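seq as requested:
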Amino acid sequence: MQKGPRTDALKRFERQTAIPMLVLSLAIIPLLLIPLIWELSPRLDTTFVAIDWFIWAAFAVEYGARLYLAPAKWAFVKRNKIDLVVIVLPFLRPLRVVRSARALRILRAARVVSFIGRGFDAAKDVLTRHKLHYALAITIAVVVGGAMLVESFEGGAPNGNIGSVPDALWWAVTTVTTVGYGDRFPTTPAGRGVGVVLMIVGIALFGFLAGSLASFFLERREETEVDPKLAEISERLERIEHALELQTEARTRDSGDV
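C-alpha cells:
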C-alpha cells in the first residue's frame, strides 16, 4: 500500500532536486581542483573548505531525504553508489592513513571523480527527461562534422583564414551558438554552405532549449499545484474509509444484538 506513494514521492523529489544538485556538482569541482593546482593562502583555503562543507551538507541532506522516501532502502543504496561515495569520502580525511599530503591530494582527486560521476548522473537524468540528449548529440555531431568539412574546404583557399582543425572547431562553435565573433569565417562557397547549415542548427537548438526549459518550469508548477489536491483527496478517502469501518462495526453489533 505504501510502496506506490513513497515511490511517487521519491520521483517527485528527485525531479525537483535534479538541476540544483547538478549545479552544485559542477560548482564544487573547481573548489577541489584549484588547491591541487595552485597553493592557496590560508584565508582562501579556509573559504574553500567552508564552501566545500556547505555543498557536502546539501548532498548529505538530499541523499538522506531520498533514502527516507525510498521504499526499498538497500536497493536504493546499491543503485546510488556514487551518491554514497560523495557522502562518505570526506570522513576519511581525519584518519591516520590519509594524513600525509600525498594521501590528501589523492583523496581530493577521488572526490573530484566522485562529483564528476554525480554530476554526470544528474545531467543524464535532466537531459533524458526533457529529451535534451538528442539535441546535444545532434549538435555535437553537426559541430564536429561541420568543422571537419570547413577545414577541408578552406585549408587550401587563397584568402582562407581557417587553416587548422582547432580554427575550424572554434568557428563552428561560435557559429552554432550564434555568437559569431568574425575572427574566423569561410570564404569558399562550400564553406559558406556549411556555415548556413550550422546557423540553422543553432537557431533550432536554442528554440528547442527554450521550449524544454518552459516545459520544465511548467512541469514543476503543475506538481506544486497537484500535490495539495492529492493530499486533500487522500484525506477525504481516509475519512470515507473510516466512516465505512464505523458503519460496518455498527451493523455487526446490531446483528449480534438481534
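The mean pLDDT is 75.
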